[in-house]
Amino acid sequence: MKIDVLTLFPAMFEGPLSESIIGKAIESGRVSITCTNFRDYSENKHNSVDDYPFGGGAGMLLRAQPIVDALTDIDVQSPETKKRIVLLDPSGKTFNQELAEEFAEEEHIVFICGHYEGFDERIKQHVTDEVSIGDYVLTGGELGAMVMIDATVRLLPAVLGNEQSNKTDSFSTGLLEHPQYTRPRDFRGDVVPEVLFSGNHQKIADWQEKESLRKTWLRRPEMLEKITLSKKQQAWLAEILLEEKTDI
User: Fold this and answer.
1) Tens of pLDDT, residues 44-97
2) Confidence band (pLDDT; 50, 70, 90) for 160?
3) Whole-angstrom distance, CA of residue 54 vs CA of residue 61
4) Is 154 one of the catalytic residues?
5) Which are the contacts of 94, defined by CB distance < 8 A and separation ≥ 6?
6) In terms of domains, do 140 and 194 share one?
7) Does the pTM of the predicted model rise above 0.70?
8) pLDDT tens, 220-248?
9) Based on CB atoms within 10 Å of each CB, which residue in 7, 13, 121, 191 is the most buried?
10) Which domain of life does this protein belong to (predicted)?
11) What is the pLDDT of residue 245?
12) What is the rounded CA–CA span in Å between residue 30 and residue 234?
C-alpha cells in the first residue's frame, strides 16, 4: 500500500510513524508513507496557503490551488493506481472500523490535513471521502490522519504477528472484545476464570463470545442494534440480563 499525506507539518509524522507496528510495516515494504508540505506548491509570492473567506467570517481558509496542485503532482508520479483521497474534516463521516477495513483494501490513499478555519469548498471536488475521527475540533488534521493510518495499516496482510488478531478485535465482530488474562493465575485474590484452564476449546470459545456480548451490553448497548444475534447469543443475552439484573 502507498500512503501520501498532504500537510503543513510533515515533521509531526516522523516519530509516530517510525515506531512499533507501523514502523515495522514500513521497514518490511508492506506500506510506504510519504508526507508532502503543500506549502511548497503555493503560487503566492509569500508562499502562503490561506486567505480570508469571501463574505467575512472568523479565521482563514486554505486556498484550493496549493492542495489541488499537490494532488495533481501525486497523480503524475503514480498514474497507474486508483487513489482514495481523504479530506480530514470535522463535518465528514465518522471514522470507524468498517471504514478502516475499506481503506485497507486500497492500493493508494491520500490524506489531506487541514488547518486554520477550514477549506475552500472547491477542494472537495477533488476528494473521494470527507472523514472525521470524532465530534470535536482539533487544531489540524495531522493527528486524525495518524489515527486512520494506524487503524488501516495494522489490517494489511502480515503486518500483525498473529493473523487472527485483527479478526477478533473490538468492533471487527460487531461486539467489544472479551476480557483477557495472563499470568499470574491469582493476582492478589483476583483469580482468572476457571473455564480458561479447562482445555475445552468449545467451552472457552463460548465463554469468550458470551463475555464479548456482556461487555458490549454493559458498555456500548447501541452496538447490538446494528447486528443480528444468533439464537445462542439471544439466550446468552437473556442470561446476562438476569445475572446483571438489567432490563432491556
Assistant:
1) 889 999 999 999 888 899 999 999 999 999 999 999 999 999 999 999 999 999
2) confident
3) 10
4) yes
5) 131, 132, 133, 134, 135
6) no
7) yes
8) 999 999 999 999 999 999 999 999 986 65
9) 7
10) Bacteria
11) 83
12) 41
Count of domains forming the chain:
2
Point out the annotated binding site for S-adenosyl-L-methionine. Answer: 114, 133-138
Q: How many residues does the chain have?
A: 248
**CATH value at residue 212:** 1.10.1270.20
177 annotated active-site: no
Active-site choice (169, 177, 206, 209): 169
Q: Catalytic annotation on 157?
A: no
Say yes or no to pLDDT of 131 above 60.
Answer: yes
Look at the block and give the residue holding cell 465482530.
173
Q: Return the pLDDT at 59.
A: 87
Is the alpha carbon torsion for 126, 129, 130, 136 positive or negative?
Answer: negative
| Helix 201-219 vs helix 231-243: crossing angle, to nearest 10 | 60
